[in-house]
Amino acid sequence: MSVGPRTSTDARAWARTGTELLLDAVAGLDEAAFAAPSALPDWTRGHLAAHVAANVGPGCHFVHYGLRGGKLLNQVAVFESPRALAGREDWGTPDELDAAFALTCDFVRDGLPFMWRDKWWRMFDRDPITTWVDDRIALLGDCAHPPLQCIAQGAITAVEDGWVLGEHVARNRAADGSVDWSAALAAYQAVRPEHCRRVLTTSRKWGALWHLDGLAREQRNALLRARDTYDYAFTDWLYGPTALTPEQEPDMFTPIPLSSATPVGT
Q1: DSSP assignment of 92-149
Q2: DSSP alpha helices (H): ranges in 154-212?
Q3: For residue 135, is it left (φ>0), alpha (ψ between -120 and 50) or beta?
Q4: Could you count the other beta carbons within 10 Å of the beta carbon of residue 228?
Q5: How many other C-beta atoms are found inside a 10 Å radius of the C-beta of residue 191?
Q6: Any idea what the Cα angle at residue 151 is, between residues 146 and 155, rounded to 5°?
Q7: Residue 129 clears pLDDT 50, i.e. is over it
Q8: What angle, rounded to 10 degrees, do the helices at 154-171 and 181-210 form?
Q9: What is the pTM for the complete model shown?
């Protein structure tokens, strides 16, 4: 959510500033912090503080990033469970986890033993709904738009819901303190469902993109390699200013078909 930058150019500059602040914080760690061991073989706290990455592969992905200045490493392993798809009760077990990531890189396989092995969850979302307001009742957060976590928007969209609703309540508050709730809720209803529909559907597509295999995987890799590191055309709509009216909601990106890519070596 942003109440400062009001253009895509400003939002991009803001994102770069955030990156620079992170790098400055890492650079500010003293030698002892960088040398302190982590739980991973041959990794220091400095590695963890500077390393934010997602490893993707057929039917699985693995996200990892440092917390608390590199004292902790958060890891998230997601995979498509054959047992869950078959309707079995013994899904997501440690042996399924290990099998799903058996062909991944050394870093991922080295990190798996350090994950919780007694807790796991299935991933669910819900089809977008277009009506969030009924008389004086309004939906916010996951009860309106529970997403997959693939673009990490679950918490922020809930915060944005509250901020947008609060802004419209403030705009429709009279001098005597009374609120025109019909107007405030109508303004909220007019803008948030469409944004969150985009988040829900993009999260699904992004997760599917990560898990591709075969020719589609090679085409995806070719498209991603061809993009400039600082090209934010596919995320400007997501990380730019939070819209208060439908007119402020930015245009979505234009999808690029996988079929348009020529994999390397073909």
Answers
A1: S-HHHHHHHTTTS-HHHHHHGGGS-SS-----------S--EETTEE--GGGT----G
A2: 154-171, 181-210
A3: left
A4: 7
A5: 20
A6: 50
A7: yes
A8: 160
A9: 0.79
